[in-house]
């Protein structure tokens, strides 16, 4: 998709469709008065008749009937002004873009009235608008051979209302980079597990990093044995698919400068192993590599955004399957950092493979560590599909992650790792255990991972809820794979580089 700021009046813009955002209870925005006159007062009439009320994500298409250079005007409700933020703006535009694609519209213009642009900085508004329309281009039904309805792709976006802001043009370019990286990862998360094994994951990454300047290294099983990655290898034992560890490097900073490590869980299918999951919804476990995919997406975006910092992306990837070779509850394995781990539940495998990934990051000189994973049902039950759960040991780094989430248009909520919880992962026969009491599951998983960061500033992002939105009740969030975390980590690299 191409995107630009457009310095023209809405009534003069040429497009398949104009998107006109309007707040609930608002009259025709001043910026669209001339357009309304061209349309014989149609927008005013729809508002007067309550045919359009401006409720959040309300969408009413209006045919321009040859009265303007654009073919359609689409009224988009933004809800109450006090409730609008960058998250909701992105979601509204993403939903509008999906509808327009189904209608066959390729050229879209977004009109941003002053009432909207006043809600945030020009750069943030420009990036949010670009990402919202860009994210709408994701196609969840790409494997259908006979789609019910032909769906086009929006290939040209113009934004009216920010033309006087020089830095906003750069923000549009960044928005394109971030949206495209996110959509790539959404496609990977959406892929069936038989078509996205650890080996295929590696091949996808090899293809994606070509020409980016990123350095790629893939650790094979023999390398893992040499490095004594007993936790990752233990999880992989139950599968016929060989485990891999993907290592991507970006060298944008000084050799002696800080190195940010992004470590993502890459379980390409999670049956639960011997502690097998219920059959209901197990097909969704194809998405258990969402954290690992997000790390790759972030690295691809970082390569284009070029922050002045060193970043290493680490993705341990395997399947978690039951077989005669699989690890069993009660087994004890030794991770690459030397800690012994008692296996209580083989379905708590994500933290095991991440422990070896985090240890690898420490050994490679990481000064800051962020891990990301579809880790616990606990966080999904707590926050639902709306938010990332965040845990950490360093308030300054957590503040940067929180700010990154705001820039990315993602909800993020910090949860505690109070000292009161210490002891929950203690084992009577090993150094630690991988599962514990039936409550505070997300917190105890974070405590387990903290054991491996060697005191470095660290944040754990649990995206078990936010990586996929399938709650029919939540009509305000686009459904399907979200690419959660891609943009957060890309922004974090930029913010950390500016420290």
Structural notes for this entry:
The protein is an alpha/beta fold and 499 residues long. It has two domains: 2-166, 3-Layer(aba) Sandwich (Leucine Aminopeptidase, subunit E, domain 1), CATH 3.40.220.10; 196-497, Aminopeptidase, CATH 3.40.630. The protein contains 15 helices and 20 strands. Strands 7, 8, 9, 10, 11, 14, 15, 16 and 18 form a nine-stranded mixed beta sheet that branches. The protein has a six-stranded mixed beta sheet with strand order 1-6-5-2-4-3, covered by helices on one side. The protein has a three-stranded mixed beta sheet with strand order 12-13-17. Helix 9 (230-236) runs antiparallel to helix 11 and helix 11 (350-363) packs parallel to helix 14 (441-450). 54% of the residues are buried. The mean pLDDT is 95.
What is the overall silhouette? elongated
> Ranges with pLDDT <50 over ≥5 residues?
none
By helix and strand content, what is the structural category?
alpha/beta
User: Per CATH, which architecture of the largest domain?
Assistant: 3-Layer(aba) Sandwich
How is the topology of this model organized?
Elements: E1 2-6, E2 17-22, H1 33-38, H2 42-48, E3 59-63, E4 72-77, H3 86-102, E5 107-111, H4 114-117, H5 122-135, E6 156-160, H6 166-190, H7 198-209, E7 215-219, H8 221-226, H9 230-236, E8 244-251, E9 259-264, E10 266-270, H10 290-305, E11 310-320, E12 332-334, E13 340-342, H11 350-363, E14 368-373, H12 377-383, E15 387-392, H13 395-408, E16 411-414, E17 432-433, H14 441-450, E18 458-462, E19 468-469, E20 480-481, H15 486-497
Parallel strand pairs: 1-6, 2-4, 2-5, 5-6, 9-11, 9-14, 10-11, 13-17, 14-18, 15-16
Antiparallel strand pairs: 3-4, 7-8, 8-11, 12-13, 15-18, 19-20
Helix pairs in contact: 3-5, 5-6, 6-10, 9-11, 10-15, 11-14, 13-15
């Amino acid at each position: 998709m191409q995107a630009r700021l457009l310095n023209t009046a809405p009534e003069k813009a040429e497009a398949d469709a104009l998107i006109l955002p309007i707040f609930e209870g608002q009259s025709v925005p001043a910026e669209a008065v001339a357009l309304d006159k061209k349309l014989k007062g149609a927008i005013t009439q729809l508002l007067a008749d309550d045919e359009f009320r401006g409720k959040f994500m309300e969408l009413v298409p209006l045919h321009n009937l040859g009265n303007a250079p654009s073919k359609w005007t689409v009224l988009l409700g933004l809800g109450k002004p006090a409730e609008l933020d960058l998250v909701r703006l992105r979601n509204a535009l993403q939903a509008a873009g999906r509808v327009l694609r189904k209608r066959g519209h390729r050229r879209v213009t977004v009109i941003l009235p002053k009432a909207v642009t006043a809600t945030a900085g020009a750069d943030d508004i420009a990036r949010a608008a670009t990402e919202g329309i860009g994210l709408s281009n994701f196609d969840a039904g790409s494997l259908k051979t006979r789609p019910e309805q032909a769906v086009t792709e929006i290939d040209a976006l113009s934004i009216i209302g920010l033309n006087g802001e020089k830095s906003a043009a750069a923000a549009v370019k960044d928005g394109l980079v971030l949206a495209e990286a996110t959509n790539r990862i959404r496609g990977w998360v959406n892929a069936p597990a038989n078509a996205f094994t650890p080996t295929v994951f590696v091949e996808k990454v090899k293809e994606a990093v070509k020409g980016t300047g990123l350095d790629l290294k893939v650790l094979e099983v023999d390398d893992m044995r040499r490095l004594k990655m007993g936790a990752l290898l233990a999880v992989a034992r139950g599968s016929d698919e060989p485990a891999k560890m993907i290592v991507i490097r970006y060298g944008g900073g000084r050799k002696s400068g800080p190195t940010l490590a992004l470590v993502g869980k890459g379980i390409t299918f999670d049956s639960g192993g011997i502690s097998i999951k219920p059959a209901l919804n197990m097909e969704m476990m194809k998405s258990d590599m969402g954290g690992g995919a997000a790390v790759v997406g972030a690295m691809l975006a970082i390569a284009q955004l070029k922050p002045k910092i060193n970043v290493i992306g680490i993705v341990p990837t395997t399947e978690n399957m039951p077989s005669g070779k699989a690890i069993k509850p009660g087994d004890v394995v030794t991770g690459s950092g030397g800690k012994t781990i008692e296996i209580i539940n083989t379905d708590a495998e994500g933290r095991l493979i991440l422990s070896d990934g985090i240890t690898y990051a420490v050994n490679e000189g990481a000064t800051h560590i962020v891990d990301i994973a579809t880790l616990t049902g606990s966080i999904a039950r707590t926050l639902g599909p709306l938010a990332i759960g965040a845990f950490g040991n360093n308030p300054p780094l957590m503040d940067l992650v929180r700010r990154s989430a705001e820039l990315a248009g993602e909800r993020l909520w910090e949860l505690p790792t109070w000292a009161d919880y210490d002891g929950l992962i203690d084992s009577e026969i090993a150094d630690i255990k991988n599962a514990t009491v039936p409550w505070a599951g997300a917190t105890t998983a974070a405590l387990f991972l903290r054991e491996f960061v060697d005191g470095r500033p660290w944040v754990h992002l649990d995206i078990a809820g936010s990586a996929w939105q399938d709650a029919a009740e939540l009509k305000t969030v686009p459904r399907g794979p979200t690419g959660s975390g891609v943009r957060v980590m890309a922004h974090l690299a930029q913010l950390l580089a500016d420290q």
